[in-house]
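Backbone description:
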Amino acid sequence: MSSKQTVVSGKDITRSIADALQYVSYYHPADYIRYLSAAYEREESVAAKNAMAQILVNSRMAAFGRRPICQDTGIVVVFAKIGMSARIDSDGSLIDLVNEGVREAYLDPDNPLRPSIVSDPLASRKNTRDNTPAVVHVDLVPGDKITFIVAAKGGGSENKAQFTTLNPSASVSDWVVDTMSTLGSGWCPPGLIAVGVGGSAEKAMLMAKEVLNEPIDMFDLLARGPSSPEEELRVDLYQRINALGIGAQGLGGLTTVVDVKVATYPSHAASKPVALIPQCAANRHVKFTLDGTGPAVLTPPDMNDWPDIDYGSTFSAGARRVNLDTLTKEEIAMWHAGETLLLSGKMLTGRDAAHKRIVDLFDAGKPLPVDMKGRVIYYVGPVRAVRDEIVGPAGPTTSTRMDSFTEKVLEATGLYAMVGKAERGPVAIEAIVKHRTPYMIAIGGAAYLISKSIKSARVLAFEDLGMEAIHEFEVQDMPVTMAVDVEGNSIHKSGPAEWRQRIARL
């Protein structure tokens, strides 16, 4: 047995966690960029190809500007593998050290990250303002070093995590594919999925969450062929999920997942626990090891890994230009599901908390603080601006969370259109048709790019809600896709259905 003991400074852990969270906020892993670039090159769906182009352009801009890829800068999840011959020199606990790193990262004045964590999840749900606490998982392993995986998991993809216990003879592949077909696009594809099989309920979920951070290697696996049941399941799921035709942002296309990860563990003879966790296009994680010589050194990726995409010509070709300040009901009735629009003019913002307040005021017979008649609302909670920015990264949030409010909000406000992310449910589509108020989507994972189309921003109401306050943005050529038109036609239904048939013919 070795007598060597490594002493890792608690300050080095805190500094490394903070640096890692800053790093992943603006740098995609290079493997994801390579795989998404390959998917972009072979994509045949125009809508999906445009969506991937925006994600790639946004990623490159975020890397150069060192600002968040996505406005949802995630819940922090840390996996720590502590060598049993290592000692941490600190008066505080490991979790305290990690949380201090989270606090420093999210309050960094040069690149503040959006705090999204609320305390007391049952009642007050008050924002902690610094994104603490993190979720920390610790393993004791042989060795004298400490290895960390630091991930920032967005709410849209995290909300789509699923768990089941199958009968021992049941097909894991069938359950995963059936489940993926029902998840919609709120998890922001193209991304990855991870599957944990075995152990117990919590073990399966934990395995899926951890294996999600493994390097992307599906092309290598396809080239050499699977050599284990886990690899056979990976290939099977990769092919079957992409055959669903869901595509980028649920618009229909060839690529829904760029990789599938699988982890297994022995289980009870009567059980087959299965966990499914998707990862969105903001695939944020980094791995580093501390050996007692100082904080982690994180090397920036090679900017040549990003494809050179002509943003202007990509999104302006064939797009309908819209002046938000002169909208009429007759004009919006001409917009059709699937077409690209470039929005210019003034729009309002508002998401969950603002919608609830609007409904509460309406139900109480009280006036609304903002006249919304004839306006467009954007479901967004932007990152705080720094330096000369008008607004920080400002990508869309998942619109289905607004579905239950939509009928009353449209009735109370007289809004003309809505912008968000992902599909709408039947209740919302019914309200869209009734009020002839169409719904558009901006691209999830393109938050920094979208922010550059915002030319002015001011808070109009509910300032105490922070990023959820009602803002007024003035935008210029903000790219969106018509998702649900006034007749109720939905690109999230027609797009995947069309591409599922095309892929089946192939």
In short: The domain at 312-496 is CATH 3.20.130.10 (fumarase). The first strand starts at residue 6 and ends at 9. The CA atoms of residues 251 and 492 lie 6 Å apart. Residues 46-65 form the longest helix (20 residues).
